[in-house]
Structure formats: C-alpha cells, structure tokens
Design goal:
Layout lengths: L3 E8 L3 E7 L5 E8 L2 H9 L4 E7 L4 H8 L5 E5 L18 H10 L13 H29 L16 H6 L4 H32 L3 H6 L7 H11 L3
Parallel strand pairs: 1-4, 4-5
Antiparallel strand pairs: 1-2, 2-3
Helix pairs in contact: 4-6, 4-8, 6-8
C-alpha cells in the first residue's frame, strides 16, 4: 500500500493542533506545535511518504499555504461552513484536526482556491487602495457631520477643497471646533496623498498581468476595476 500521510491542522494564533492519519485512517501521530514557520516545517519534515495537508480558511491560511505548498504533495485549504456535519458529529467538532485529516483522506474536503503567488502582490495593493478609499470617505463624512452639527449647510464637495477652507472654518463659532476641523482637514490631505500613491502602485502592478488588459475591453470596466477584479478572481 502506498505510503501516504494525511495531516489535519487546527490553526490558532499561538499553536497548531496536528493529527496525522495513514491510508487506513489510523491516527499515527497527534501533536501541538507553535504557529511558527520553522516549527511547522520541522514537524512536516519528520513525516515519511507523500504528505497531504489540510486546514481551514482563516487569517493565517495564505501564509501557511505558501509555506507548505513547496514541501508537501498536496495542500488543501477548506471552508468549514461548506462541510455538513456527519451523523453524531457536533458543530464544534468540525474544526478538529483529526476530522479534517479524515475528510481529506476520504476525498470529502471542499477546497478553497488560494490563487497564484504571482498575484499576491496585486492582491495586497488592491487591499491597501480599498482601505484608504474607505478611510478617506470616513473622514469626509466626519467633516460634513461637524459642520452640519453647527447648522452650516455644506452640500457638494466644496467643503473638502483646500481653496476656501478659511471661509469654512470661519463658520465654526468655537475654537475647539475649528481646531478639530483643522485636524480633520490635515488627515484628509494625508489620506488623499496616500490614496494617490496606492492607486499608482496598484495600477502599475496590474499592468504586469495581461488579463487586466483583457478585462478592460469589457464596457464600463476601467483600470481600477480591472485590477480589483483580477485580485479577487485571480483566473478570469
């Protein structure tokens, strides 16, 4: 019988609970290791035969996938919510390392596509741009809320522009309000500069991928949206 090992990992912030099954479903090893790259690789390196690893999607899943993928025969990242519990199996048991390994052994694991390493940079840059846009919108809303709280009408985008800010600040009666508004304006300017920088970096990285040019042939999809789609879909 082929020498295969099926390794289930229940990953936590500080530790990883590991269960190793053979092809017959017998648990040949159970352990708890630190959530550190060297420690995990040392454990995997001590296993003989073809090693198949499974763990659930989560915060550390991409890092762990990249760490293990070159070292083992197979890495499966699964979505636990897509797995229906078997008879007699409680919901809390589904994250158990042994059950994960057994699902992999039986071919019952539903994998989550982790994408290609070549697109990871674009994915991170898209995240940066997305969160800066959110932060910028949040600050803009706070500026308008400050003026509206004093009964000052501020429709449109004029209240955000650098030109005319002194006039807008003069509408605020309290020195504390003026100081607060001034800080929000400074934050706005910094976020705008960071957003422009993040956009340039994102679009520059996106241009390296031929799929972005293909996506932009679709009506209403520009460079930004094409980069976002590629980072999310990865293989359009």
């Amino acid at each position: 019988m082929s020498n295969h090992k099926y390794v289930g990992m229940d990953v936590h912030l500080a530790t990883v609970v590991v269960a190793v099954l053979d092809t017959r479903g017998k648990c040949v090893c159970q352990s708890v290791v630190e959530t550190k790259g060297g420690t995990i690789l040392d454990f995997i390196g001590g296993l003989s035969g073809a090693v198949h690893v499974i763990f659930e999607e989560g915060t550390q899943a991409t890092w762990l996938y990249d760490l293990l993928q070159p070292r083992v025969a197979e890495v499966v990242v699964c979505n636990a919510r897509r797995h229906q519990p078997k008879a007699g199996e409680h919901h809390a048991d589904r994250a158990d390392a042994y059950k994960l390994a057994n699902r992999l052994r039986l071919g019952e694991a539903k994998a989550v596509y982790k994408g290609e390493r070549g697109l990871r940079t674009l994915k991170e840059l898209v995240h940066s741009y997305h969160y800066l846009v959110q932060d910028l919108t949040r600050v803009m809303n706070r500026i308008k809320a400050l003026y509206r709280g004093q009964g000052v009408a501020c429709r449109g985008r004029g209240v955000y522009q650098a030109r005319g800010r002194e006039r807008w600040l003069a509408e605020l009666p309290e020195p504390g309000l003026k100081q607060r508004a001034g800080m929000l304006y400074r934050e706005l300017d910094q976020l705008r500069a960071l957003r422009r920088e993040a956009k340039r970096a994102m679009l520059g990285e996106a241009e390296r991928h031929p799929a972005c040019e293909v996506l932009q042939r679709v009506p209403a999809i520009g460079p930004v949206r094409a980069a976002q789609i590629l980072a999310a879909v990865m293989t359009p």
